[in-house]
Design brief:
Blueprint: E1 3-5, H1 12-22, E2 30-34, H2 41-46, E3 49-52, H3 58-64, E4 70-73, H4 82-95, E5 100-106, H5 118-131, E6 135-140, H6 148-157, E7 159-162, H7 174-186, E8 194-197, H8 205-216, E9 221-224, H9 227-236, H10 241-255, H11 265-270, H12 277-286
Parallel strand pairs: 1-2, 1-4, 2-3, 4-5, 5-6, 6-8, 7-9
Helix pairs in contact: 1-7, 3-4, 4-5, 6-8, 9-10
The structure holds NADP nicotinamide-adenine-dinucleotide phosphate.
Amino acid sequence: MSIAVTAASGNLGPLVVDALLERGVRPGQIVAVVRDPAKVDHMAAQGVSIRQGNYDNPPSLAAAFEGVQKVLVISGSEIGRRVQQHANAIHAAAAAGAELIAYTSVLRAGDATENPVLPEHVGTERVLEESGAPFVVLRNGFYTENYVDQVRQAMRSGELLTSAGEGRTASATRADFAAAAATVLTTPGHAGQRYELAGDAGWTMRELAETAGRLGGRQVVLRQLDESAHLEALLGAGTPEPIAEFAVALDRAVRDGELDVLGADLAELAGRPTTALEDGLRAALARPSPSRGPD
Ligand SMILES: NC(=O)c1ccc[n+]([C@@H]2O[C@H](COP(=O)([O-])OP(=O)(O)OC[C@H]3O[C@@H](n4cnc5c(N)ncnc54)[C@H](OP(=O)(O)O)[C@@H]3O)[C@@H](O)[C@H]2O)c1
C-alpha cells in the first residue's frame, strides 16, 4: 500500500505524514508530492519517498502518482487558479488507478453561502464527483492557527475588532485535521463520504478576546463593528483592500454560523477530542512559523 500526499511542503502536509507514520505506515510507503523537494529534506531523511509534482504540470502529477493506491490532494494556495489545479491532480490520480482520492475541502461546502473560499472547493468537489474514481471529501473547518496573528495583535493593542457578532467558530488545529486525514487514508470504509470536520466546541469572538487576554496577560476588549466600520478600520490600519474584504466576508460567514458545525466527525476520525482553542493558540504562539488566513 502506497499513499501519496500532495502539497506536502506546506503546514498541513508534514503533519499528515507524521500522523501516517504514527499509525504504522512505513516511511517508504508514503509519497510526499512537492513542487520543491529541497523543502522536505527532513522527510527524505526519514525514508519518505519524495516526488516532484506541480498542480500546473499534469505530466509531473502523472509521474508522482504512479503505483500509488491512495492520494490525498491537499488544496493549494494559489487562489483563483485552484479548480483547474486540483482537477489536474484528481485526473492524474484517477488515471493512475488510485483506489481512493481524498480532498481537503471546506466545511459545509454543500450548503453554505457566505464563506469566500467556497467556490473553488465546491468546484473541486464537482470535479471529484465527475472523475469516476472512489473519493472522500474532508470538509475542513477553520484552523485555530488562522487566529494567531489576530491574537498577537490583540495582545499588543488590547483590543480585538470583529463584525462576526455572536457567531461561533468550531475551529481545530492543523494536527487535528491531519490526524483525521491519516485515519481516512489508513482504514477502510471512507469512499463516498463527505465528512464535516470541525472542533468539538464552538467559540465566539468574545471568548477569543478573553482567551487572548489570558494568554497575553492583559485585558483585551472586543469591539463589535458593523461590516462597513470593520472594513474601514482594517483599511485604516493599512490592511490591503482585498485582504480586508476577505476578512470581513469571513466574519460574515462566522456570524451566519457557517463555521460552527457541531458534529463529532473530526474527533471520531482523529481518535481523540479536538484541541481546545486556548491550548491550540498557546502552542501556535510558541512556534516561530508564520500563520496564514483560511483559503
Ligand atoms: N481550513 C483552514 O482554515 C485553512 C487555512 C488556510 C489554508 N487552508 C487550505 O488548506 C491547504 C493546506 O493548508 P496549509 O496550512 O498546509 O497551507 P500552506 O502552508 O499555505 O501550504 C500550501 C501548500 O500548497 C502547495 N502548492 C501551492 N501551489 C501549488 C502548486 N501549483 N503545485 C503543487 N503544490 C502547490 C504549496 O507548495 P510550496 O511549498 O511549493 O509553496 C504548499 O505545500 C491550503 O493550501 C489551503 O488550500 C485551509
